[in-house]
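agent> fetching stored inputs for the zinc ion docking request
agent> found them:
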Amino acid sequence: MERKQFQLGDIVQMKKNHPCGSNEMEIIRMGMDIRIKCVGCKHSVLIPRAKFEKNMKKVLRSAASETDASSSE
Ligand SMILES: [Zn+2]
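agent> prediction call returned; pasting tokens
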């Protein structure tokens, strides 16, 4: 099974919506635990990496891919 790819600054979609109704979360800290911030209400939560990977549905916007379109070598 493919491992989920994510990095600092990514906007991700979780399987469960946040109580505020938004399901978009921004990754604001990476480590053994991951801190994500709700885009809707700006509330942040710290969750273990394993749990994050399990609950994360997909990456909506990658912080890295935003510059891909304009980069030319
Ligand atoms: Zn929220």
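agent> quick read of the result: Residues 31 and 57 are 19 Å apart (CA to CA).
agent> awaiting further instructions
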